[in-house]
Each structure stands twice: as C-alpha cells, then as structure tokens.
Amino acid sequence: MNIMLRIYAKDPDARCQFAHKFGADKTRWIEMLNIIQENKLSLVGISFHVGSGASSSAPYALAIKEARELYDMAKDRNITIKYIDIGGGFTSSKLENIPEVIQEAKKQYFPDELGCKFIAEPGRFFAETAGYLATNIIGIRKTETTRDYWITDSLYGSFNCIFYDHYNPKPEIMKESNNNYFTTFYGPTCDGLDIISKVESYPEMFLNDWIIFRNMGAYTLAGACNFNGIPFLNTHIVYLHKK
C-alpha cells in the first residue's frame, strides 16, 4: 500500500486552521517511520497543509524545509520519497509572493536531481472567485433610517461559509438610489441568528429585487442543509463561459 505522511504545518493567520487536527510533528516522525516499516507499507510522499485561506508565504517555506528533513530521515532507511504535496490555502486576495517563495524553497531543498514531484491542492483558489450567488428579496421591514431585507438564501444554505469558513459576504450594489439606509440582510429561516450581512449605507431595494454576492464558489453550497424544510440544496446552478 502506497501512503503519504502528513507533517505538521501552520499559518497562524490562516482563515481556517488544520494543524490542531492533522499532521505529525517532528517528535513523532521516527515513530511513524517505524510503524510504516513494521507494517510493510510503502511511503511514497510527504504532505502538509498550512491552513485554508493562508495569509503568509513563510509557513510554506518552513514546511518545505521540514519536509526535506523527513525526506533525509526516510532516505537513511532506504525509503524513496517521490512526491511532496504542499496542500492548498491559496486565495486570489492574499496570494502575493507565496508562489515565488514556494519555488525558491523547492529549488533550495528539493533540487531537480532528487526527482521529487511537487503537487498542490488549489481548490479554493480556482473555485472561490468563479462563483456568484444571486438571491431574491422576499420580505422588507422599514424604519425612517433603516431597511431590513429577507432574502432567499441562509446561514443554513450557501452562507454557512460565514460560520464555517469565516467569510464576510458583501452584497453588490445593483442600482443607484437617492435613498440609502443602514441595511440588514436576513436569511428566510425562523432562526434569529440567520443574519447574512449588515451594511452602513445601501440603496433602497424592493420586493423581488435581486442581490448578488461575489466569491461564493468555495465552501458554500457544499455545506448547506434544508433547515426549516426550506430547499437550500435545490439551488439553481447556472454555468457561464466566455468564448
């Protein structure tokens, strides 16, 4: 059986932390290698994940450096590592110099003559900005200074990303208006916590108007449920492409 050994890696400022749950720290590497050899398993790779929504390049460089340390320990036991999986965590908003630092660390610690293949898991990077969520206004409450709108998606639907992915969705301004108000967007469920967004100044909207949210392609509908019997899982999906 071919296996990958996941090592401890952490970006303390990543949007979602994984290190508390996954990854063997250095103090356990010898133990893990012993178990692998005792059970006649084939260790072919090393993997790590610094956290989803990473904000810094330094944790990647450190993890690649430590992967080389484990590579050398495995080599001393006649184990040949073929793959290094650097995980994911990449976002378009905070990518900055992360690719360059990864390439520099790869060149320094895993030169081509070692023959290791690097792989990654850039799911969020590709999916997040590709998805838009269109919601409809189905209820309105007015005061002299505020507007509250009930929309057709929820914290229990695609907006579960607020809780589980620490995302701050921002409603697009769909039209200009001379009347702007402090605005709250609510989901349609009976839960008082089902608050999507609060905006200091937003144009007045009306029943059946559409509200668009960007960057809703990752960790949104995948975590939805049909809370209160509302069919959030039946969200209509439309694919658009440019020729």
Describe it for me?
The protein has 243 residues and is an alpha/beta fold. The protein folds into 2 domains: 125 residues, TIM Barrel; 104 residues, Lyase, Ornithine Decarboxylase, Chain A, domain 1, CATH 2.40.37. Helix content is 21%, strand content 22%. It has 5 helices and 9 strands, in the order βαβαβαβαββαβββ. The protein has a 5-stranded mixed beta sheet with strand order 8-7-6-5-9, with no helix packed on it. A 4-stranded parallel beta sheet has the order 1-2-3-4. Helix 2 runs parallel beside helix 3. The longest helix is centred in the first third of the chain and has 19 residues. The model has no long low-confidence stretch (mean pLDDT 94).
Question: What brief labels describe this structure?
Answer:
4-stranded parallel sheet, 21% helix, 2 domains, Lyase, Ornithine Decarboxylase, Chain A, domain 1, 243 residues
Task: Summarize the SSE layout with pairings.
Elements lengths: L1 E5 L22 H10 L3 E6 L10 H19 L6 E3 L12 H12 L7 E3 L3 H5 L5 E10 L3 E6 L9 H4 L15 E7 L8 E9 L6 E4 L30
Parallel strand pairs: 1-2, 2-3, 3-4, 6-7
Antiparallel strand pairs: 5-6, 5-9, 7-8
| Tally of separate domains | 2
Mean pLDDT: 94
Tell me the Rg in angstroms: 23 Å
Strand arrangement, major sheet = 8-7-6-5-9
Please identify the oligomeric state.
single chain
- By DSSP (H or I, 4+ residues per run), the number of helices equals 5
Quick one: overall form? Answer: elongated
